[in-house]
């Protein structure tokens, strides 16, 4: 799987609130950082983190790969959604993604900033 296919499946899973589809993109031994100081250990911890998408509505995720080195990618992303209280939220940041030979993500690092909608 190439990075564009991976990102498209990631986007579809997120916007469709399908946590299992998102998790299927990660290897069982993935190194996953939700923030630079918050490492999630294993797919079960990642799934617990991803449950938050169930409270997101009108999800709009866009992305662009801006750097590639072998199987490592830097991706600029932008996310807008409304929460359960109908507040409009906007986040932007960078994903650092490494794909293994099977096209699964075995390293994921997430950096973001909250902005004004």
From TrEMBL:
<feature type="domain" description="SnoaL-like">
    <location>
        <begin position="13"/>
        <end position="99"/>
    </location>
</feature>
<protein>
    <recommendedName>
        <fullName>SnoaL-like domain-containing protein</fullName>
    </recommendedName>
</protein>
<dbReference type="InterPro" id="IPR032710">
    <property type="entry name" value="NTF2-like_dom_sf"/>
</dbReference>
<dbReference type="Pfam" id="PF12680">
    <property type="entry name" value="SnoaL_2"/>
</dbReference>
<dbReference type="InterPro" id="IPR037401">
    <property type="entry name" value="SnoaL-like"/>
</dbReference>
């Amino acid at each position: 799987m190439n990075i564009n296919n991976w990102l498209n499946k990631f986007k579809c899973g997120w916007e469709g609130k399908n946590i299992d589809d998102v998790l299927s993109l990660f290897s069982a031994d993935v190194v996953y950082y939700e923030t630079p100081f918050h490492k999630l250990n294993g797919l079960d911890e990642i799934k617990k983190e991803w449950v938050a998408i169930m409270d997101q509505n009108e999800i709009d995720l866009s992305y662009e790969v801006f750097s590639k080195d072998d199987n490592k990618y830097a991706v600029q992303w932008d996310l807008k959604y409304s929460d359960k209280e109908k507040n409009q939220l906007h986040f932007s940041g960078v994903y650092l993604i490494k794909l293994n030979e099977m096209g699964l993500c075995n390293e994921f690092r997430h950096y973001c900033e909250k902005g004004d909608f």
